[in-house]
Amino acid sequence: MASVPVKERVKVSQNWRLGRCREGILLKWRCSQMPWMQLEGDSLYISQANFILAYQFRPDGASLNRRPLGVFAGHDEDVCHFVLANSHIISAGGDGKIGVHKIHSTFTVKYSAHEQEVNCVDCKGGIIVSGSRDRTAKVWSLASGRLGQCLHTIQTEDRVWSIAISPLLRDIHFNPTLTPPTLPSLGPSACGKACIHERFLFISQDNHAKLCLVMGLRPENRNPDAHDHVPISVSLTIALAALAKPGPLPPGSEWEETSSFVTGTACCGHFSPLRIWDLNSGQLMTHLGSDFPPGAGVLDLMYESPFTLLSCGYDTYVRYWDLRASVRKCVMEWEEPHDSTLYCLQTDGNHLLATGSSYYGVVRLWDRRQRACLHAFPLTSTPLSSPVYCLRFTTKHLYAALSYNLHVLDFQNP
Q1: Domain that holds residue 236
Q2: Whole-angstrom Cα distance, residue 76 to residue 78?
Q3: Secondary-structure breakdown of the chain: helix, strand, coil percentages, each rounded to the nearest 5
Q4: Peptide bond connecting 414 to the previous residue in cis, omega within 30 degrees of 0
Q5: Pair (137, 177) in one structural domain
Q6: Which of 26, 150, 325, 369 holds its CA 20 to 30 A away from the CA of 414?
Q7: Where does this protein have coiled-coil stretches (predicted)?
Q8: ∠ CA 161-163-167 to the nearest 5 degrees?
Q9: Residue 238, in any domain of the structure
């Protein structure tokens, strides 16, 4: 909203806070679906049966051009889930296959990934992770010469409903001119490399080290000499450790290795529905929470930062986890007031949280500083009750995908 006048931004912000919006329907389909969608720029991608369709928004953002920009096919059964990554669509199918589609060409590849339907996928830094009903999670390479090659197979003991790769080491640049400072706990660092990412200083102990020490930077000063003197982490076994590439570190080049991913499972065969795995070895790093009731499966989750994530599912709670504080107890939780399963969630990375419930297409807006729900929007009624399978929002609009319709809530022109 940078180019939007301040007065208009204030008006839209007040509409969100007060729940003032205009409801509309963007798309309808005759048969009941379980759609998934993604937004990118002025385009919307949505799954319908075994296809993924791309539509362009009209300038108002509250309507679509009826003719699809593209149709991506290849699965023999319904598309369960998909993500957009590096100009590709990575799709998970009920046929047990993963599809890789180039957005701006006709290139499509699919390969057998699991023995049963693939419920979820994620992709970052040239790595794909997938989860399935067959009680496994798998790690795959997206590299052209290794496409379809399974790097790790993880036995999860439970159906995997949701999966996400940590953004821990994405978009980090090494600075070859930066000399690592002297650390009182380690002594002078005569060799190695260092880089700054957000509020953290990453230091390798030598050019071939696999372990980087993570030092907390004072927020008022990004000078590397102003770091705190106590390492946040020096362990490979917890999520705050930074894992470097084997071999010499590439000065001045982008380093997109990611170190871990999280699975959300059914909580039937294993006591914890949230587990974090090492992406390089496939080994379990830790599990989140404790005392989950049987069946408290996690249907959706998302990272907000390398250290914070949100989860929701069958036990009717949204939970906010901060790995720096504790892996056994969430730092905040919100309960669905009508005891409904929560199918999906979305956040703006600040205070706004939106959730989709299992009955009557209820979308709820939450202020994360408060326990109680701010607003609820029932998008269907009896006898057409439907879960909200997926929701996304921009600064002006919220989009919710239900069994028969794609709904929009317009907060710009209520």
Answers
A1: 172-255
A2: 7
A3: 5, 45, 50
A4: no
A5: no
A6: 369
A7: none
A8: 165
A9: yes
**Segment 29-50 mean pLDDT:** 96
Instruction: Give the Cα separation of 155 and 135 in Å (integer).
Output: 6
Cross-sheet strand order for the sheet of 160-165: 160-165, 260-265, 274-278, 284-287
Q: Tell whether 307 and 162 lie within a shared domain.
A: yes
The mean pLDDT value of the chain amounts to: 82
pTM of the model: 0.80
Total number of domains in the chain? 3
**Nearest residue to 363 (alpha-carbon basis) of 350, 348, 351, 373:** 373
Alpha carbons within 13 A on the beta-carbon side of 169: 28
CA distances (Å), origin 369, targets 129, 326, 350, 374, 375: 33, 19, 10, 11, 14
Per-residue pLDDT reduced to its tens digit, 49-74: 999 999 999 999 999 999 999 999 99
- Strand, coil or helix: 226: helix
Q: What is the pLDDT of residues 132-141, one digit of tens each?
A: 999 999 999 9
pLDDT at 376 > cutoff 90: yes
Helix (H), strand (E) at residue 411: none
